[in-house]
From TrEMBL:
EC main group: hydrolase
Keywords: Hydrolase
Molecular-function annotations in GO: phosphoribosyl 1,2-cyclic phosphate phosphodiesterase activity
Residue ranges of every copy of the Metallo-beta-lactamase domain listed in the record: 34-224
EC number(s) reported in the record: 3.1.4.55
The name this protein goes by in its record: Phosphoribosyl 1,2-cyclic phosphate phosphodiesterase
UniProt-listed SMART domains: Lactamase_B
Organism: Spirochaeta isovalerica
SUPFAM superfamilies the record matches: Metallo-hydrolase/oxidoreductase
Pfam families the UniProt entry points to: Lactamase_B_2 (PF12706)
Length: 257
């Protein structure tokens, strides 16, 4: 299994529009962060977690030519507004789309032309089939996906676990105690860590490291990173086994020996 970091940035992306801070002006490609998303590849199955704002650019960069399913963590703009750009890879076959009841309703309201036949023809539209997720999860091809309930401020959103080996949690400010058993025995954990300073709806670096220590995965990667953090400096400061993610990173999970 391979997890591709399509985007590792926060809702503004990095560089931030109009900002002249050292990170936004940096020439280091690892400081260029599009909005947060991942693709999970295993055997002949490819699933997408969130349709980030720059999905078109991410998909072209990664050479994505098909998707077997899309899973949404939540319906905030930076995790959703690339949905229209799946048009070209959903022409031949509609793509199953999974999320919570509330998020599927919000997506339908935000993109009514996708779901209702009340607009004129021309230009095409994404072909998707919405499915409400339950706690038992779903298997798509060779990938088992289990939702992990977490909190994004006051919002209930999802993280996801894949084939029992890896998990992805972004935009999280609290993991309920009942969700920690769903995160045990991980080879890889990818978790949001916005900045050093505290934030009301996101883990900061210290909080993310505390969660990583509690879960104790084989490796951990920080994502959803804002322009407060320089990649190289952060990499030097993190403890062993914890790494900053960056756009284009490939995380390989080899079969157990």
């Amino acid at each position: 299994m391979t997890i591709s970091i399509l985007g590792s940035g926060t809702s503004h992306g990095v560089p931030v529009v109009g900002c002249t801070c050292p990170v936004c002006l940096s020439g280091n490609v690892k400081n260029k962060r599009t909005r947060a998303s991942i693709a999970v590849h295993y055997k002949n199955t490819i699933i997408l977690i969130d349709t980030a704002t720059e999905f078109r650019l991410q998909a072209i960069r990664e050479g994505l030519t098909k998707l077997d399913a899309i899973f949404f963590t939540h319906s905030h703009a930076d995790h959703l507004h690339g949905l229209d750009d799946i048009r070209s890879i959903s022409r031949e076959k509609a793509i199953p789309m999974y999320g919570s009841k509330a998020d599927l309703e919000e997506i339908t309201n935000r993109f009514p032309y996708i779901f209702y036949n009340t607009v004129q023809k021309g230009g095409g539209k994404p072909q998707v089939i919405p499915h409400r997720l339950t706690g038992t999860g779903v298997k798509v091809g060779s990938i088992e996906v289990k939702p992990i309930p977490v909190k994004h401020g006051k919002l209930d959103i999802y993280g996801y676990r894949f084939n029992k080996r890896a998990a992805y949690i972004t935009d999280c400010s609290e993991i309920p105690e009942e969700s920690f058993p769903l995160l045990q025995n991980l080879d890889v954990l990818i978790i949001g860590a916005l900045r050093y300073r505290s934030h009301p709806t996101h883990f900061n670096i210290e909080q993310a490291l505390q969660v990583i220590k509690k879960i104790s995965p084989g490796r951990a990667y920080l994502t959803h990173i804002c322009h407060d953090l320089d990649h190289d400096q952060l990499e030097d400061e993190l403890p062993g086994g914890v790494f900053p993610a960056y756009d284009g990173l490939k995380i390989d999970l080899h079969p157990p020996v």
